[in-house]
Amino acid sequence: MKGYKGKYLVVNLTKGKTEEHPLNMTDVRKYIGGRGLATKMMCDMINPMIEPFGEENILIMMTGPLTASAALFACRYMVVTKSPLTGLVASSNSEGYFQNELK
Question: What's the predicted TM-score (pTM) here?
Answer without folding.
Answer: 0.83
